[in-house]
Write a structure and sequence with these properties.
The strands form five sheets. A six-stranded mixed beta sheet has the order 9-8-5-10-11-12, sandwiched between helices. A four-stranded parallel beta sheet has the order 2-1-4-3. It has a two-stranded antiparallel sheet with strand order 6-7. 34% of the residues lie in helices and 11% in strands. By secondary structure, it is of the alpha/beta class. It starts with 43 loop residues before the first helix and ends in a 6-residue tail after the last strand. Helix 6 packs across helix 13 and helix 18 crosses helix 19. Strand 6 and strand 7 form a beta hairpin.
């Protein structure tokens, strides 16, 4: 096939060896010995003396170099981490670096009564460098999940790890696959190494949902998952796969940032222009393009959505590179593709655990983030009898600008939901009634919002008034950034820290439509209470409702029946894919037993 003039290529570059965040690569170079010839006027004895000294010094350097390298490695992994939040830690917590010290054993947990499974039921494996990524094996200390991964999922994860290592960056297989892209030649044979490359964009919650979706698709199609190295993924998450990197090398031959919905390389445009299905590829048995761009963003068109059809999946099987751009959790639509249904049932007997298991497998915050998470948890949350997470996302607008408040009706909705659902005690009791209740409990409220006003107001209500049952309610908010800054590294680090703090709560209230809340509930394995979006600055009725499952919602799900070739209600095709509580046109996965 001739290379279309619209195809964009980056110049070839040198091969690089990627550093692995899950461990340390140290390249040791022996110092060069510089021989200095002795002058003919020097005394022979002095020359021999100097040469002997040089040899002795060189031997000493070579003998001590390994120790120096080890000290350097220890310094690099033990350097003081960065505190991300603006609040000050209590003095007793300032020197308590329990979860960042090298001599802490894994039988130490926030509470002596908490037992934890550091491998998350077999999702993880031993062998990673714990000091370079402490969250990987420590996350289980802070929340115990009741959801157990299936033995088949664990088996498939081990197979995927082997595939990632066999075909990942730095291997002969990857070099061959990248060279095939450079040559732009059509493919008429199969290979053991095919790839899904995910272009990362959008906010942090969306990123976690899109990575999880792409990884599940890679599992279903026996492909290697690679992700965009330039969108801070390496700064906020450790490498998930042993012995390899999931970051696309910097000399990747395609200028993928230029791909859009209108790109001729997109699958939808290739279908629409009869490049596929008409004159070229499907009329030539076995011949496939070297890559296909899949535009699965929220603004995708009808032909792009045919990706979710059985016939189109069969065609895409033979394409070596699938380059995906999405900002959504498209997992529910994978459950509607007939050829994947049996495999998905084996992977997830509890169907609503897809994000829960895969996110805990894939995402491990880097040490700076984990330091802030654990320090904040120990300082403010660990001693409470109950932790209530309240994730607040505002969708009010003034013109084209989003506003975060203050909006009194949003505050009223938060308090009404938390009190009516018995998540927080009501206000207005007397001292005598509180004493009679005899509860003397403490509830810690973890509030997350771009605005500080909501947390401050909830704190005032409970600090200035007695609760009906005598419970003490303390409200904490790690940060308030005022505006979302998706391209700011520290902003994203704070956001991830707050997602993990929310996942450590006992009960969770989230804002409808928010991917930030989806990520937190999925990591925690908690079924949240969802606050519905308000209309016309009024408190909605009902103010909130219990979610059907812990799964995120696919906001822009297609509604096309591929077999009948007409639009239909895909929320009624199978019992375990339903419309979302917070997005009526969206789809989410539920357990059949929950219906």
């Amino acid at each position: 096939m001739e290379k279309p003039s619209s195809r964009r290529w980056s110049s070839g570059g040198h091969k690089e060896k990627l550093p692995l965040r899950g461990g340390l690569e140290t390249e040791v170079r022996a110092p060069h010995a510089h021989a200095h010839a002795a002058g003919q006027h020097h005394e022979a004895g002095r020359g021999r003396y100097r040469r002997n000294c040089a040899r002795a010094a060189l031997v000493f350097c070579l003998l001590t170099l390994p120790a120096g390298v080890l000290l350097l490695q220890r310094w690099r992994t033990s350097s003081s981490p960065e505190w991300l939040f603006d609040v000050e830690l209590p003095k007793e917590e300032e020197d308590d670096d329990q979860d960042i010290k090298d001599d802490v054993f894994d039988d130490i947990s926030p509470s002596a009564q908490i037992e934890y499974d550091r491998l998350l039921g077999g999702l993880l494996i031993e062998g990673f460098d714990e000091r370079s990524c402490r969250s990987r094996y420590q996350f289980a200390r802070y929340h115990k999940s009741e959801r157990i991964p299936s033995p088949y999922l664990i088996e498939r994860l081990r197979r995927q790890e082997a595939l990632q290592k066999k075909c990942g960056p730095g291997t002969k297989a990857y070099s061959s696959a990248a060279e095939q892209l450079r040559s732009s030649q059509s493919i008429n044979s199969t290979t053991d190494c095919n790839y899904v490359f995910l272009i990362i964009h959008a906010g942090l919650g969306n990123r976690m949902l899109e990575v999880t979706s792409a990884f599940l698709y890679a599992l279903l199609t026996d492909r290697v998952l690679l992700v965009d190295r330039y969108k801070e993924i390496g700064d906020i998450f450790c490498e998930p796969f042993p012995g390899t990197s999931w970051l696309i090398p910097s000399d990747f031959p395609l200028s993928y940032d230029e791909f859009t919905m209108s790109s001729p390389e997109s699958y939808g445009n290739m279908l629409q222009n009869n490049v596929i299905g008409g004159n070229m590829y499907r009329s030539l048995a076995g011949v496939k393009p070297p890559y296909v761009y899949l535009h699965l963003d929220g603004n995708y068109g009808f032909h792009d959505k045919l990706f979710y059809c059985e016939d189109d999946q069969q065609f895409l099987k033979g394409v070596p590179w699938l380059i995906i751009r999405t900002d959504m959790y498209f997992v529910p639509s994978l459950f509607l593709i007939p050829s994947y249904q049996e495999e998905l049932s084996k992977l997830f007997p509890e169907k609503d655990t897809v994000f829960h298991h895969l996110a805990r497998y894939l995402f491990h915050p880097t040490n700076d983030i984990w330091y802030s998470v654990t320090k904040y948890y120990r300082a403010y949350l660990a001693k409470a009898d109950k932790i209530v997470g309240i994730q607040i996302r505002i969708y009010e607008h003034k013109g084209i600008l989003q506003r975060n408040g203050p909006f009194p009706h949003i505050l009223e909705q938060i308090l009404s939901c938390s009190q009516k659902e018995k998540l927080l005690p009501e206000i207005g009791g007397t001292d005598e009634a509180a004493t009679a209740a005899g509860k003397n409990r403490t509830i810690a409220v973890l509030a997350t919002s771009l605005s500080s006003w909501y947390g401050d107001e909830i704190r005032k209500r409970y600090s200035q008034h007695q609760t009906v049952d005598g419970t003490t309610v303390k409200v904490y908010q790690p940060s308030h950034e005022e505006y979302q800054k998706s391209r700011n590294r520290k902003h994203n680090m704070k956001a991830l820290a707050e997602i993990y703090l929310l996942s450590m709560t006992d009960v969770l209230i989230t804002s409808g439509f928010s991917t930030f809340g989806y990520a937190a509930q999925g990591l925690a394995g908690l079924t949240p209470w969802i606050m519905y979006r308000s209309r016309n600055h009024a408190v909605p009725n009902p103010v909130c409702g219990r979610a059907m499952s812990i799964e995120p919602c696919f906001h822009q799900a297609p509604f096309y029946d591929c077999k009948a070739k007409r639009d239909t209600d895909l929320g009624k095709v199978v019992p375990y894919v339903r419309h979302c509580e917070d997005v009526s046109w969206g789809l989410k996965i539920v357990n059949e037993t929950q219906l």
